[in-house]
Amino acid sequence: MTDEEMRIAIDRIARTADGEALYRWLQSQLMRVCTSAEAGTLQVELGRRTLARDLMGHMAKGIDESGKPGTDRPTERAVAIGRTRAVTSPGPRGIPRRVTASSDPFADSGPDAA
Questions:
Q1: Which of 47, 58, 80, 103 lies at a CB distance of 3.0 to 4.6 Å from 10, suitable for a disulfide?
Q2: pTM, entire model
Q3: In total, how many domains does the chain have?
């Protein structure tokens, strides 16, 4: 298989709903923060990000061309990754407070909010 044949196959995948879901996952991998202190973690994360970046580059045209008419370019949409657990953040005057989905004032302000 040649590089051109592979690019065509990736483009076909990008034009499907599953391709857009894959593109979103690749974005999350590209944006994720490395939290491990194990040896070799930075090299692994760099490899993961490089692969995500390269695949996203090959998929971008197909993703944008397969979007719904009249909508923004799908490759330029922000990626929001939900937290599954509460996080502690400093409140006014440095007092920590717990932020949960029910106490987050921005939780319902996303584009899919009803």
A1: 58
A2: 0.58
A3: 1
